[in-house]
Amino acid sequence: MGDDGERLQAPGATWDLIVSHELYKRGLVSVSMVSEKLRDKARCNGQGLVFPESAINQAIMQSVASGSDDLL
């Protein structure tokens, strides 16, 4: 947890969260766009790189909403 009570995810857990998301399973998520959206959300929690869980979910939703054709 971050100082603000936000759940933080390490890179491996972030990937697990992305690939277990229902929208990813349906082939609607652009991983490259999620990665781009998360780039400036990374934090260091003293043990390594982490991402706020809300930022991960927001990036997933933005990826779907963009209608990117990178998936074709």
From TrEMBL:
Top-level taxonomic group: Eukaryota
What protein name does the entry list?
A: Yap1 redox domain protein
Which organism is the protein's source?
Beauveria brongniartii RCEF 3172
